[in-house]
Amino acid sequence: xxxxxxxxxxxxxxxxxxxxxxxxxxxxxxxxxxxxxxxxxxxxxxxxxxxxxxxxxxxxxxxxxxxxxxxxxxxxxxxxxxxxxxxxxxxxxxxxxxxxxxxxxxxxxxxxxxxxxxxxxxxxxxxxxxxxxxxxxxxxxxxxxxxxxxxxxxxxxxxxxxxxxxxxxxxxxx
Length: 174
Fold this sequence. Notes:
Blueprint: H1 2-17, E1 22-33, E2 38-50, E3 55-68, E4 71-89, E5 92-107, E6 112-127, E7 132-137, E8 140-149, E9 152-160, E10 167-173
Antiparallel strand pairs: 1-2, 1-10, 2-3, 3-4, 4-5, 5-6, 6-7, 6-8, 7-10, 8-9
């Protein structure tokens, strides 16, 4: 047991020593439609670690609250991913995230619905400063079964170019 604790301390000390490789960020959204009496709110913080200029690992934890008329939904998702940056020119980076996600949604006074996904999400990042970047992801290639992250809930096998899959986020690297 002491060896395990000592190993964890060494690992966390090594990560802290390379703090410039850690990044935090996330996204949030709110939508309102009077015609359908639809309100939705989501927040998706994320934290990750850059191994080098091309490879990173991170994870997203998302919470969604959705209300259509009198029907309310709450959802939670977790999505770890590995990122490969395949193009870099000045302040622009192109990347692809390989993700594995799990989600659960519950309608008030109803049953829970669980989902998962495994696949790839392409994106672009603009490095505003050495520490701050703006990112956008669009599309999905893989398998998704009732997975919900930030309010999108669908089943897909193959390529998904649904406009609802467009996400924007802000990242800060230490």
